[in-house]
Amino acid sequence: MQELLDEFMNNELLGLSSSVPKCLRSSLEYVELRTWISGAEAEMKLVKYFLENSAVLKKFTLGLRCKRNEESIIFMELLRFKRCSASCEVVVDLEETYPTMIHKFL
């Protein structure tokens, strides 16, 4: 994940926003980030990229590790992201603070 984020921030992947790969638009149905994110700018840009460019995305799952007072800010940012797929469900698993709590945004 860190390598992907580094590439993204180094503008190697930023060019994809104007030329989205066909498979991303027409085939990608599920994304699961297996590395916990903290809401850093690069992480949120990557999440936004998938949500805005995946036309058939059904479910996007991510784990969130952040301070309790930052959760609502990150949730609001996630809710504001445009989604190319109207039926995409965003699932946020919170680590440590609420280990069993899962938030779903439809």
UniProtKB/TrEMBL annotation:
It holds the Pfam family FBD. Residues 22-93 form the FBD domain. InterPro entries: FBD. This is F-box/FBD/LRR-repeat protein. It comes from Cardamine amara subsp. amara. The lineage of its organism: Eukaryota, Viridiplantae, Streptophyta, Embryophyta, Tracheophyta.
